[in-house]
Write a structure and sequence with these properties.
685 residues; alpha/beta; TIM Barrel; Jelly Rolls; nine-stranded parallel sheet; 25 strands; 20% strand; disordered N terminus; Metal_Hydrolase; F5/8 type C domain-containing protein; signal; FA58C
């Protein structure tokens, strides 16, 4: 009797050993076993979307110590919370689950008859099956601009497919909100921005909860480039907050009168920075108190121009462009729904086809905001800014060698590309169809090679822009499922959510989860080199961000220096003395007599190495002038000259030269007046 328990324990031990051996031979290894895979959640909601990607996401850096992966420089995770809350239907996530997150706006039931914005943007009658989860008969779709495309699990699939950086632009528009028929909250832009920032942090906590607690999820909000690099090194997704709104800080303008001041700008920038925002647009769609915009075209342009009038009291104004860059043509296509909002007797003006540039550039308040962003080491988004505004912003950055400039979604004239890369900035292309994307990428390939930089894309999902349509099952080089990720470590199959399975060939880029499929389409259409540039995108974006953070304003050797001039314009009410050009403010200026041969001399007090001089011209500028240096004030050496000056902010760079005295000698005026300078900067670098 006493031996039986012993025999049972022995039998159990033998069986356990056999099971362990079988598990080792037949089952997965511990590193990839379900429940031990760091990239798989331990508590995903049920039911939920499938990811349809297998294999461990790549981690670490390459042999050169650079991060790897794609960057989406322009997305709108929470646009559904902007524009009054009912323009984009559905949520990025919901504590109540996918059925609550992916449902249509109430007014779209039962058949989409009241889907007004869907009708305006897509055409037809707006009718559609409003049911989202679980059938998704009609949405999300590549050409439906009013339904959620950024459900968190779809973003997760893009991360699993190789994306490592995502810029979440907090977005809204007060005018669109005010004129849209349906809304359930205030149209105040900053209120919406604050909410979207909060929800981004809530999404991070939502994902963390699935993975066992704070800091464990794949969705990581970062506020500096070092954090971002560490996140990418771990194989996770670094999320940066940006802002794209039409009236930041309340800076609208009515009949050309600003509705904000410098205190509003400082307070607004400080608040955004505290929220974690590190990049932003200063204007978007409508001219505001900071800058003029790059126009929209066609019927949409007409509708936006109506909004411009309703917001500002003025329509867009155009002029002939003075350089190779130009704004988009406005066009004359009708937009009856929008034009009906105009007061009786008011109509959208017509525009000359040879006048494609906005008359409005960067205002004085806009320049103050740009310099405020520089002080806070923030990156400026120049897409949507008029040619005149971009030119001035780049002049300011070049004068101080500031690298923080971003073009994130093809809303910049490509003729600026060299200047952006020359500063150390970053460029991404809108999520065009593969053929168009490849063509644009090839147009700028030589410059990427010249500056040794990677490339990015801006999906602009939930940004009412439209996305790549299907190329068809008979298209050459169509995507074949399953396919390998760019790094080769993951296998990617068709994406399934509920009862719907999407195929890029037949559905196009219907939602964010199809980003990896779209990249595979680019590879098949354009070749591996385009995708290689994209795979270097995360590194290049973080290079720009890091250089922005490290930037130190150069010492202005001319600040407060002793000055003399050949002449000074007399005025009984104010002084235009030469010292006004080095007093550190644009509120004063030096002005000469009204004749060609004039000069301004600056005494630095002692000999310094001089390699850069900046000249901030008033309207009376020098067309032909030279910069001369001297150690004794007697013998002068010309180090830089031009005969094609056009005013604005000029930066003269030359080989560093010892000098105590700097002289700007004008030989031909650009106007009938004299020469007039707000500020002159003298720098060693």
């Amino acid at each position: 009797m006493t031996s039986r328990p012993y025999r049972r324990r022995r039998d159990v031990t033998v069986v356990s050993l056999l099971l362990l051996v079988l598990a080792v031979v037949l089952g997965p290894t511990p590193s990839s076993a379900a429940g031990n895979d760091w990239w798989l959640p331990t508590a995903r909601p049920t039911p939920d979307s499938q990811i349809n990607v297998t294999g461990e996401p790549f981690t670490g850096t390459d042999a050169k110590g650079e991060v790897r992966g794609f960057v989406d420089a322009h997305d709108h995770l929470f646009a559904n919370e902007g524009f009054g809350g009912r323009l984009i239907c559905g949520k990025t996530f919901s504590e109540a689950g996918i059925a609550d997150a992916l449902k249509d706006c109430p007014e779209h039931y039962p058949d989409g008859s009241l889907a007004v914005f869907d009708f305006i943007t897509k055409g037809g009658d707006g009718r559609h099956d409003p049911v989202g989860w679980p059938t998704f008969k009609d949405w999300p779709a590549h050409d439906s601009l009013t339904h959620q495309q950024n459900y968190y699990a779809w973003v997760e699939r893009a991360w699993r497919g190789g994306q490592r950086v995502l810029v979440n632009d907090l977005v809204t528009n007060g005018v669109i909100c005010s004129v849209y028929f349906f809304k359930d909250r205030s149209c105040d832009e900053m209120t919406s921005i604050r909410l979207q920032a909060k929800l981004t942090y809530d999404l991070q906590a939502y994902v963390d909860k699935m993975y066992g607690g704070p800091g464990k999820g794949w969705f990581r909000i970062v506020t500096d480039s070092a954090q971002a690099r560490e996140v990418v090194k771990q194989g996770k997704l670094a999320v940066i907050l940006g802002v794209e709104t039409s009236e930041p800080f309340g800076c609208k303008q009515i009949l050309d009168i600003p509705q904000c001041d410098k205190k509003d700008i400082d307070a607004g920038l400080d608040e955004l920075y505290a929220l974690g925002v590190r990049s932003m647009f200063l204007c978007h769609k409508f001219d505001n108190a900071l800058c003029g915009v790059r126009f929209d075209s066609g019927g949409l342009g007409t509708a936006i121009n109506v909004g411009q009038f309703l917001s500002t009291g003025t329509f867009w104004k155009t002029e002939k462009c003075t350089g190779p860059q130009h704004d988009n043509p406005i066009g004359s296509a009708a937009a009856p729904g929008a034009e009906a909002k105009l007061p009786a007797g008011v109509s959208v003006p017509s525009y000359d086809s040879d006048a494609q540039c906005n008359t409005r550039g960067l205002t004085d308040l806009g320049e103050y905001a740009v310099r405020g962003m520089m002080k806070r080491k923030m990156m400026l988004e120049i897409d949507h800014m008029s040619v005149k505004a971009v030119g001035r912003a780049l002049d300011i950055f070049e004068a101080d060698s500031y690298p923080g400039v971003i073009s994130s979604h093809s809303w910049m004239d490509l003729n600026w590309t060299d200047r952006v890369y020359g500063l150390g900035g970053f460029i991404a292309q809108y999520m065009h169809g593969s053929e168009g994307f490849v063509a644009e990428a090839n147009r700028t390939k030589a410059l990427r090679d010249k500056y040794d930089v990677g490339y990015g894309y801006g999906t602009d999902m939930n940004g009412v822009g439209g996305w790549p349509g299907p190329r068809g099952t008979d298209a050459p080089n169509k995507v074949t499922y399953p396919f390998r990720s760019v790094d080769g470590g993951s296998l990617i199959d068709r994406q399934t959510t509920g009862e719907r399975t999407w195929d890029l060939n037949t559905d196009g880029a219907a939602h964010y989860g199809l980003v990896p499929d779209w990249i595979e389409d680019i590879r098949l259409v354009g070749g591996q080199s385009v995708v290689n540039d994209l795979f270097r995108g995360a590194e290049s974006y973080l290079d720009t961000w890091g250089a922005t953070e490290r930037h130190q304003a150069g010492v202005n050797l001319a600040d407060g220096a002793s000055t003399t001039a050949s002449s000074t314009e007399w005025n009984p009410f104010t002084s235009y003395a030469s010292s006004r050009a080095v007093d550190g403010t644009r509120d004063t200026r030096w002005a000469s007599d009204w004749s060609d041969d004039q000069w301004l001399r600056i005494d630095l007090g002692s000999t310094h190495r001089v390699g850069r001089v900046t000249l901030d011209w008033e309207r009376a500028y020098g067309k032909s002038y030279r910069i001369e240096l001297s150690t004794d004030g007697v013998t002068w050496r010309t180090v830089w000259s031009t005969t094609t000056g056009d005013g604005g902010l000029d930066t003269a760079r030359f080989t560093g030269t010892p000098a105590r005295y700097v002289r700007i000698t004008g030989t031909e005026r650009g106007t009938k007046w004299g020469y007039s300078l707000y500020e002159v900067g003298v720098h060693s670098d």
